[in-house]
Amino acid sequence: MGRRSDHSRTELRALIVAEAHKHLAEVGFLRFSAREVAKRIGYSIGTIYNVFGTLDALMIAVNTRTFGLWVDHLGRHLASAGKDRIEAMVEGYFSFAARNPNLWMAIYDHRLPHDMTMPEADARERARLTQMVEAEVAKALARPTSADIAGLTRSLVAVVHGHCSFALTGTFNLLGEQNPQGAALARVRETLAAAKRTAEL
After folding, report:
1. Which residues, other chains included, contact 25 with Cβ-Cβ below 8 Å and sequence gap of 6+?
2. What are phi and psi of 137, to 5 degrees?
3. Of 74-83, 154-163, 183-192, the least confident
4. Which of 18, 56, 104, 151 is most buried by its number of CB atoms within 10 A?
């Protein structure tokens, strides 16, 4: 029997997200089951849909939780970094994904329906990661943040993400790349160096 009166709606939402996040980390996106989450917390599947409305809304909340942990992880890397903060960022990106492969890949495996938009609160929380990287890119170039820096940051994140994804899926092994993280860092350094030269012209 479900514990329908044990928690307030706010408490229930937090409980569902925490257990769903744990379940996702264990089994990955393709094997994720809201019914299993309900079973684990002792509520009916209807309770989960009553709180979140749809499975997509639940996945948004779970993936946003992952973003928060990712920001914290990257922040710790930067806090203990020496002068080479760019290397610390790339290492932090790779190490978070390597330690949390199912959670990390679920961020990109989940696709929002065309008629659904990301809630503003979730979008803000997720944006913290890119904003952190953007601030470090601006520092590396000794320039203030701007639309150009934001665009460059997005491209650099895409470069690192691609290398990281290929590393996790084993694609780089097939291609003979032995050091994906080092290759990603090299591409980032090359791009930043080119951006510096362009700014000096």
Report:
1. 100, 102, 103
2. -65, -45
3. 74-83
4. 104
Please work out, in degrees rounded to the nearest 5, the angle formed at the alpha carbon of residue 86 by the alpha carbons of 21 and 164.
45
- Please tell me the predicted confidence (pLDDT) of residue 45: 94
Identity of the residue numbered 48: I
In this structure, which amino acid lies at residue 187? Answer: R
Locate 99 and state its tokens: 């330690």
Distance CA 171, CA 180 (A): 10
- What is the Cα–Cα distance from 72 to 76, expressed in whole angstroms? 6
Handedness of CA 171, 174, 178, 183 (dihedral sign): negative
120-141 and 147-169 helices cross at what angle (nearest 10)? 100
Q: 87: which residues sit within 8 A by CB, 6+ positions away? A: 81, 185
